[in-house]
Amino acid sequence: MQELLNPFNHEYWMKKAFAEAEKALKMDEVPVGAIIVKDNIIIAKAHNQVETLKDPTAHAEMIAITSACDTLGEKRLEGCTIYVTLEPCPMCAGALVHARLDTCVYATADPKAGACDSLYHLCEDPRLNHRVKVISGVYEEKCSLILKHFFELKR
């Protein structure tokens, strides 16, 4: 069933991405989830699968981009917004730019690998041929807690 996007309620949509992060946690993956929305419809949902697929590129954002492109039959995701529970890394931020998403909404910063605000501002770099608007801190506390819980279990 398709769901309508309320563009004024980012938290509602981040909760959908958080549900994907919970799936990753159950699979013993770093709990990151993502959804992509276009024209008021969720067109892709994904969660990290790096361990499951033995693939270092199997981040939630990368899987969601591939799924969204497949859904649309297009290589560009213009008019789309991605909601992701953790600030995208350089690989994922670069993919967002290359896929030409309009907006990236993320929950919690990644001070060790974040490429939207923390370490780099890749999505909004004026030297690139496309920029992705970045909105941060949406549903941050809950998304931060699931990550802390995961890494505490690993220690």
Write up this protein.
The radius of gyration is 14 Å and the shape is globular. The chain has helices spanning 10-26, 50-53, 60-72, 90-99, 140-154; strands at 33-38, 41-47, 80-86, 103-108, 133-136. A five-stranded mixed beta sheet has the order 2-1-3-4-5. The mean pLDDT is 95. Helix 1 runs parallel beside helix 5. The chain is built from five helices and five strands, in the order H-E-E-H-H-E-H-E-E-H.
Number of beta strands: 5
Distance between the termini: 39 Å
- Coarse structural class: alpha/beta
By DSSP (H or I, 4+ residues per run), the number of helices equals 5
**How much strand content do the residues show?**
15-25%
Instruction: Return the string of H and E elements.
Output: HEEHHEHEEH
Instruction: Tell me the helix content.
Output: 25-40%
Compact summary:
Helix content is 38%, strand content 19%. With 155 residues, it is an alpha/beta fold. The relative contact order is 0.16.
Keywords:
5 helices, single chain, 5 strands, 38% helix, alpha/beta, five-stranded mixed beta sheet, 155 residues
Topology record:
Layout: H1 10-26, E1 33-38, E2 41-47, H2 50-53, H3 60-72, E3 80-86, H4 90-99, E4 103-108, E5 133-136, H5 140-154
Parallel strand pairs: 3-4, 4-5
Antiparallel strand pairs: 1-2, 1-3
